[in-house]
Amino acid sequence: MKILVATGNPGKVKEYQEFFSELPVEFVSLNDVGITEECEETGDTLKENSLQKAQFYGDLSGLPAVADDAGLFVDVLEGRPGVYSSRYANSDEERMEKLLQELEKIPYNERGADFRLVTTLYYPDTKEHVSFEGKIRGIIAEEKKQLAQKGFGYDPIFYVPEEEKTFAEMMGEEKNAISHRGIAFRKLKKYLEK
Ligand code: ITT
Fold this sequence. Notes:
Layout (H helix, E strand, L loop, with lengths): L1 E4 L4 H10 L6 E4 L16 H16 L3 E10 L6 E2 L9 H11 L9 E11 L6 E12 L17 E3 L4 E2 L5 H7 L1 H14 L1
Parallel strand pairs: 1-2, 1-3
Antiparallel strand pairs: 3-4, 3-5, 5-6, 6-7, 7-8
Bound molecules: inosine 5'-triphosphate.
C-alpha cells in the first residue's frame, strides 16, 4: 500500500518512513507525486486540522493520505498556544522566547502543559478516515536546555519530570518511547498492522 504524507515538511516524511519501516507500506511525499498546492489550516482543533490536510491532499492525489497536527497546551495560558503553536511566532527560537516571557513570573509548580498530536489517515475512494491521538504531560522549563543539535520546535523548553530531562536532552528513541508523537504513531501502527 502507498500512503501520501500530507505535509510540506520533508523531516516529517522521513519520520513516517522510519517509524513504519517494518510495515509493507510505502510512504511518499507531496514532492514525489508532484503536488505544490498549499492547504489551509482553519480548524479549531488538532483533529480538524489533521483531517483537513489529509482530506485535501488525499482528494488531490487519489492516494490514502496521512497528516498530523501538534500543539503545546499550557495550563496557565488556558491551553494556548494550542492549535496555533506553529503560528505563535515566526521561528522556533522566537516561539520559545515568547513562551518563556509569557511565563516569566509563573512558578515551577504552575508551569504544567500537555503536548498533543493527532494523526489522521484518510481514504479518498471511500471518504473514510481514522484519527489517533497522543499526549504527554510536562512542564515548561524556566530556560532552554538542549544537548548539541538535539530536538526541534519547543523541545528545549519541554521538561519531562519523570525523566528529569527536556525533550531536547533525550535521544530520538528515548523521546519516541514517551512522546505525544510516539504514542499516536504506535496507535496508527497497530491499526495499519491489522
Ligand atoms: P505541517 O507542516 O504538517 O502542517 P506544522 O508546521 O503545522 O506542520 P505541527 O503541527 O507538527 O507543525 O506542530 C506545531 C508546532 O509544535 C510547531 O511549532 C512544531 O515545531 C511544534 N512541535 C510539534 N511536535 C513537536 C515535538 O515533538 N517537539 C517539539 N516541538 C514540536
